[in-house]
């Protein structure tokens, strides 16, 4: 998909969270090239101390590459990585003081859980007696007290992931990096660990970068979210910014579900698509093609009636239900408006009105729920 | 529907499995029985027999061969020599093969197969031929001495062959492919992520090797050492040719006893003692391996 910049919002996000706070982790134009292929392209990013950044993006967009460059496991082809002011881009990984949690846990299989957690402390020459207490503290923090004598393979995936977290945190690193730490866990455990990681991160107030391709994870856990695409940062902002005010069509489409409709801008507050004219904010554009994004759950589906009847919604279109997909908490309707197929999502309720395929309905939405990206997509 | 089919074929498979397995095992079992188990039993039997001069077995049983061997100073030296040679050869082979195996484990898959074939390719040439090759290379007028003399580093040729040095060099070269194969087979637990994790926790390259890489390769090291120890203590041709009659080992002694002195019971008793050493090595190996489990 072609990127379409929205007017008024730059790619790096002018609504950057914590603009006033100084950046603790600062990526200044880091680039990674594999031969002629650029995996990470001139990436700039600021993260204030104690914040949790979620790096979100489709597979192959360079998330892991970025993380590994911060950790020092990959050399940078260019740019600077600053932590608390000093450039660490050329330091070897063992001198960076960065905690790392891998997707596959990477626990040392020949050591017990306690030895795994103690490893980083030994490397720092911490006294034996202090190591013992700190290891026990760390295991308590991840709710695994007394598991120290076990071997990693005697533990479940979730427990191993916690040990791996304890091992990374016990050294009190300046920065914590997590690469899809939850993707090997089942859905329920993932929810639990999400809350736990966030809690620990906030309690220790540790600057953290969390790589994920799960947008729920990114939106629910993180102080700010960086959406990556093709080695570039498509947008950096708070979860709300990313979701409600996506900087470009890519972000709008990638984060959350979206109806992307081709249309035309008629005036600063009017667009046209299909047979209809709709009220919205075009961010100053007066004419030209545009791609209009409407979130499915912001479309209200009501029984068919006259459009002119009073409603709080300003925009509406008649349609016929094509398909009904029952998901559990929501029902998804594909609605044929004659010129477009509009997706709508409605929360299920025990007594709520459910529409059947073939039924005529009226779809309504508010002007502020239309995101207009001037330029058009395809 | 699919499930039923699967279940059916699974049950049928289970019922057929023991029979097929037995049938397939029979040829190997027969070969092993005839060519290995029976001869070893017969060897044990002969080791307890008496023989007259000329090698004729009398048919009387006694433990004389064992007592004779174990009370003889020269024979005990043989055991010592053989153990020392095998252990040192095993250690040197390990040191030579370990970097090769580690490299093969890490190299990209595209190169791995090619390099793997290169590593084991010496096995395509008989060890007799390779041993003769070493005689040519290490001899007084050989390649190594020629090079050293012409460069002026030494004035008279080094004695590299017909002694322990020659046997050690020859055996190490013969055994490197076996060691490398065993090492690679035992490197399964080595994962580059573990080294990266260690690095992120503050371990430098040497500490990563000492604390993470080496411990994880121990199963391969144990396997390779067992194999090379057993192969070198029972090796005959290389010590015979490169030792030049000056290197006395258990295997060469068994040959002399059986073929030159025609003392079959003695040769059999010596062989049984080598077998016991094998057994001890194996027991030690399984104890070591159990610790990694
Ligand atoms: N060693 C390499 N040589 C060449 N290209 C590579 C190498 N490693 C990664 N790449 C490429 O760099 C790009 C970014 O890879 P990266 O692993 O960072 O993706 P990612 O965002 O983490 O994806 P995923 O969500 O699938 O983990 C990919 O297109 C990948 O093909
Ligand atoms: Mg990745």
TrEMBL record, chain A:
Region (Disordered): 1-22
Subcellular location: Cell inner membrane
E.C. designation(s): 7.6.2.11
Reactions accelerated catalytically: ATP + H2O + polyamine-[polyamine-binding protein]Side 1 = ADP + phosphate + polyamineSide 2 + [polyamine-binding protein]Side 1
This protein's UniProt keywords: ATP-binding, Cell membrane, Membrane, Nucleotide-binding, Translocase, Transport
GO cellular component: ATP-binding cassette (ABC) transporter complex
Domain ABC transporter: 25-255
Leading EC class: translocase
Domain of life (superkingdom): Bacteria
Major subcellular location class: membrane
InterPro entries for the chain: AAA+_ATPase, ABC_SmlMolc_Importer, ABC_transporter-like_ATP-bd, ABC_transporter-like_CS, Mo/tungstate-bd_C_term_dom, P-loop_NTPase, PotA-like, Transp-assoc_OB_typ2
Role according to the record: Part of the ABC transporter complex PotABCD involved in spermidine/putrescine import. Responsible for energy coupling to the transport system.
Family label: Belongs to the ABC transporter superfamily. Spermidine/putrescine importer (TC 3.A.1.11.1) family.
Cited PANTHER family: SPERMIDINE/PUTRESCINE IMPORT ATP-BINDING PROTEIN POTA, SPERMIDINE_PUTRESCINE IMPORT ATP-BINDING PROTEIN POTA
Name of protein: Spermidine/putrescine import ATP-binding protein PotA
Species, as recorded: Allorhizobium borbori
Gene: potA
UniProtKB/TrEMBL annotation, chain B:
Domain annotation ABC transmembrane type-1: ranges: 79-285
GO CC annotation terms, alphabetical: plasma membrane
CDD domains: TM_PBP2
Principal localisation: membrane
GO BP term, example: transmembrane transport
Recorded topology in the membrane: Multi-pass membrane protein
Tree of life domain: Bacteria
InterPro entries attached to this UniProt entry: MetI-like, MetI-like_sf
TM region(s), chain numbering: 19-41, 83-102, 114-137, 164-187, 212-237, 267-285
Subcellular location(s) of the protein: Cell membrane
Keyword Transport: yes
UniProt keywords, alphabetically: Cell membrane, Membrane, Transmembrane, Transmembrane helix, Transport
Gene3D superfamilies hit by this protein: MetI-like
UniProt family annotation: Belongs to the binding-protein-dependent transport system permease family. CysTW subfamily.
Protein name per Swiss-Prot or TrEMBL: Putative spermidine/putrescine transport system permease protein
Organism: Allorhizobium borbori
């Amino acid at each position: 998909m072609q990127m379409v910049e929205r007017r008024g919002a730059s790619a790096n996000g002018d609504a950057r969270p914590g603009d006033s706070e100084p950046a603790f982790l600062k990526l200044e134009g880091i680039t990674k090239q594999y031969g002629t292929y650029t995996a990470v392209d001139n990436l700039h990013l600021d993260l204030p101390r104690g914040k949790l950044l979620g790096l979100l993006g489709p597979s192959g967009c360079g998330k892991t590459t970025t993380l590994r460059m911060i950790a020092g496991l990959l050399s940078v082809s260019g740019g600077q990585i600053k932590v608390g002011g000093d450039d660490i881009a050329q330091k070897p990984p063992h001198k960076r003081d960065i905690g790392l949690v891998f997707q596959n846990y990477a626990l040392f299989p020949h050591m017990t859980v306690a030895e795994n957690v103690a490893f980083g402390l030994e490397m720092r020459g911490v006294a034996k007696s202090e190591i013992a207490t700190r290891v026990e503290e760390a295991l308590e923090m991840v709710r695994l007290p007394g598991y120290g004598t076990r071997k990693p393979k005697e533990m479940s995936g979730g427990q191993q992931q916690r040990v791996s977290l304890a091992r990374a945190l016990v050294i009190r690193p300046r920065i914590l990096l997590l690469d899809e730490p939850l993707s090997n866990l089942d859905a329920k455990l993932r929810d639990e660990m999400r809350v736990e990681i966030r809690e620990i991160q906030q309690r220790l107030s540790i600057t953290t970068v969390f790589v994920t391709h799960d947008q729920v994870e990114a939106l629910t856990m993180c102080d700010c979210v960086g959406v990556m695409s093709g080695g570039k940062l498509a947008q950096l902002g708070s979860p709300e910014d990313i979701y409600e005010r996506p900087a470009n069509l890519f972000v709008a489409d990638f984060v959350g579900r979206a109806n992307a409709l081709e249309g035309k801008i008629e005036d600063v507050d009017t667009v046209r698509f299909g047979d209809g004219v709709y009220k919205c904010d075009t961010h100053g554009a007066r004419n030209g093609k545009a791609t209009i994004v409407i979130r499915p759950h912001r479309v209200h589906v009501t029984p068919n009636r006259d459009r002119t009847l009073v409603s709080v919604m300003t925009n509406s279109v008649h349609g016929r239900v094509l398909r009904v997909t029952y998901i559990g908490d929501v029902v998804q309707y594909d609605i044929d408006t004659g010129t477009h197929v509009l997706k709508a999502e409605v929360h299920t309720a025990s007594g709520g009105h459910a529409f059947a395929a073939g039924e005529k309905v009226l779809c309504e939405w508010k002007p502020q729920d239309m995101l207009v990206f001037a330029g058009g997509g395809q | 529907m699919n499930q039923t089919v699967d279940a059916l074929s699974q049950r049928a498979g289970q019922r057929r499995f023991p029979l097929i397995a037995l049938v397939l095992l029979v040829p190997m079992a027969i070969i092993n029985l005839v060519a290995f188990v029976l001869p070893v039993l017969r060897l044990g039997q002969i080791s307890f027999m008496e023989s007259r001069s000329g090698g004729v077995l009398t048919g009387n049983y006694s433990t004389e061969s064992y007592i004779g061997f174990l009370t003889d100073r020269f024979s005990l030296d043989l055991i010592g020599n053989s153990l020392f040679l095998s252990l040192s050869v095993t250690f040197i082979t390990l040191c030579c093969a370990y970097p090769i195996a580690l490299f093969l484990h890490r190299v990209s898959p595209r190169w791995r197969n090619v390099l793997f074939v290169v590593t084991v390719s010496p096995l395509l040439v008989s060890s007799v031929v390779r041993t003769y090759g070493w005689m040519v290379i290490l001899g007084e007028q050989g390649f190594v001495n020629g090079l050293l003399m012409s460069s002026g580093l030494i004035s008279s040729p080094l004695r590299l062959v017909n002694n322990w040095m020659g046997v050690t060099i020859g055996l190490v070269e013969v055994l490197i492919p076996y060691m490398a194969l065993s090492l690679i087979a035992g490197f399964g637990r080595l994962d580059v992520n573990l080294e990266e994790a260690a690095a992120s926790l503050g371990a430098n390259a040497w500490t990563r090797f000492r604390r993470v890489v080496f411990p994880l390769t121990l199963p391969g090291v144990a396997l390779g050492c067992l194999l090379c120890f057993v192969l070198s203590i029972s090796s005959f041709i290389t010590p015979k040719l490169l030792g030049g009659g000056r290197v006395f080992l258990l295997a060469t002694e068994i040959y002399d006893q059986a073929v030159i002195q025609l003392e079959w019971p003695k040769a059999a008793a010596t062989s049984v003692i080598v077998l016991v050493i094998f057994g001890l090595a194996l027991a030690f190996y399984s104890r070591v391996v159990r610790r990694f489990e």
